Amino acid sequence: RRVLLLGEGNFSFAASLCGARGTHVVATCYESEEEAAGRGGAARSIRRLRDSGAEVVFSVDCTKLKEYFLPGEREFDRIYFNFPHCGRKAGVVKNRELLACFFRSCAEVLAEQGEVHVALCNGQGGTPADQPRREWHNSWQIVAVAAGAGFILSEVHPFKAEAIHGYKCTGYRSQDKSFHVEGALSHIFTRSTPPLCLTPVSCETQLGSQKVSFQVPQVLVDKINRGFLELNSNHPVRTIKEMLSAGLSQAFPLQNVSSCPPLLHQGHLRGVGHCNIFWITLSPGEAPSTEETSQGLADTVWFSHFGQDTDRNGREGCPIPEQFYLRPSLLPHAQAMIQKGDFSPGTLHVLSGPVFRQCRITPHSMPVFHEMLVVLAVSRGTENSCVQMLVDNIKTTTSSLHQAVCGVKPSISLQEATSFGAELNDFAAFECQLGEIQHFLCVGTDPDPSGSCVGVIRTAPDELKSSELVVVSASLNLDLLAMLLCGISDWRMLWTSDRRFLQQFPEGELRLFKSFSLYPPSYVHDVSFWVPDGEEFDEVAFHTLARRVSGEMVVSVQLRDSFQQPGTGRRSLCYRLTFQSCDRALGCREAAEMQLRFREEIQQHLGVTLR
């Protein structure tokens, strides 16, 4: 491998690397050879480097690296820059500028899978790894600076000068003097995946007996047809689904439903708010015939015990056939199969696939996730014992998986809906709109032992024509389970295109996830506006626009202030948006551009007036 060392003072660090098997060292410094050789021990280190076959280059500016190497010699596997400094009494701002130019220069000479190692004195980096940690404005803000050039911080470890044979730090304030390196840290940066270019995507699907195409909502473009549940997938959601199915098959005769649930539904879901649905307009000339529309509607509408029927604008009334939406649940497909008599009593039927729901932005709220739906028709009077068997089996499998991954047993509880005291997460809240729920399945792990709802249990006696049978169903959010079992703090990581995510789960093995992007920088922007007179503000649409414009880079949306103007009654809202990526570089300039686009979009699509 080719290793480039920059800013060498006396070349003692470079000399410690020379002779390593399979490594070609290129050691450089900013000074001329005459100046560098005058430092204590430098001449000896330079001779040792040259004798070992290493290259030694002088007068190298770390901000213009491609000027010193021919195109065929620019693919360095590692670049080291230990204790960079502008010299003399340069402050934090100048040193940030130095690092910014250095990282941009590195991007031009680093191999695709290469690493950039930067050692800084204790406190300089400005990350939580520094102890004590400086105030942000008084640090070099190395992670944010590197993000501007497309790099993410993947590792941090102590810089152990005493373990480097022959190493002696020098260069304090551009002099041949040593400086304190106690508590110093080595920061290892890697290339980020490039920014997503979300071009419009059309999708073809079956609707009734006819194939139709539609344009995928932009916020879902990178999440449609990802194939996480396919046979050749190593994704943890598939592993968990297979493990749960294997466990359930020990207690029930089990059948995986191989037919693909319809991606597109017609009409609407009774009791479900229109703002929680991804509404779709078919491509021109794609609308099915009236007969096909009626049949499709009969096959896909899920009844509810609650609420009035409303159209997409919130008006009460009957379903409107020309309305289409992405499936928010597998329940309608299961309902259609039950009504057709496709389910065998006593056999546990398993359906799985991605479902789509508009929702607010939180770390655990997902516009798309993988649902596993298990359905069982049992004799009336045995439903309670079957529910208990079902839940016990799921609890045993989940507990076993968590203990294998983390070494500890999680807290798994089945809570009755009537006595559920915790605040519902978005998954559970939406499930409540779909129909009556008897139990919530909650999994609690440190630091949240109280539990997060990952599943709901229903019993529905009136779904079958037979008065002898009762349908028991359990809907599980596989993405939430994967997050809890593998220690993934942000749902977006499940959908990353960075290969380093799936590399942590070889052959479908579940492991505790280790983030490859540490301490990602965050950027806060406020937006204040007047709401259109006489209209209810659609906060879910506001959050969805933030998702779309930022490419899922907004992690928090908080209402900071609500003001009503005396006399006119006009209402003003102020929101605070926090931009942060979990898997790729996000610089301050890119976040500012997203905020400007977002301001334009909310004016155009929500009719607000900016303040």
Helix-strand blueprint:
Blueprint: E1 2-6, H1 12-17, E2 24-28, H2 33-37, H3 42-51, E3 55-57, E4 76-82, H4 92-106, E5 110-120, H5 142-147, E6 151-158, E7 185-191, E8 202-207, E9 210-215, H6 236-248, E10 254-256, E11 264-266, E12 279-280, H7 290-300, E13 324-326, H8 331-339, E14 348-356, E15 368-379, H9 383-406, E16 411-416, H10 426-434, E17 439-445, E18 448-460, E19 469-477, H11 478-486, H12 499-502, E20 523-530, H13 539-550, E21 554-564, E22 571-579, H14 588-606, E23 609-610
Parallel strand pairs: 1-2, 1-4, 2-3, 4-5, 10-14
Antiparallel strand pairs: 5-7, 6-7, 8-9, 11-13, 12-13, 14-15, 15-19, 16-17, 17-18, 18-19, 20-22, 20-23, 21-22
Helix pairs in contact: 6-9, 6-11, 9-11, 13-14
Describe the structure.
This protein is of the alpha+beta class and 611 residues long. The protein has 3 domains: 2-191, Vaccinia Virus protein VP39 (Rossmann fold, 3-Layer(aba) Sandwich), CATH 3.40.50; 202-285 and 321-508, Bira Bifunctional Protein, Domain 2 (BirA Bifunctional Protein, domain 2); 523-610, Alpha-Beta Plaits (2-Layer Sandwich), CATH 3.30.70.380. Helix content is 25%, strand content 25%. It contains 14 helices and 23 strands. It has a 7-stranded mixed beta sheet. Strands 10-14-15-19-18-17-16 form a 7-stranded mixed beta sheet, with helices on both faces. It has a 4-stranded antiparallel beta sheet with strand order 21-22-20-23. The chain is elongated, with a radius of gyration of 29 Å. Mean pLDDT is 86; it is low at 293-321.
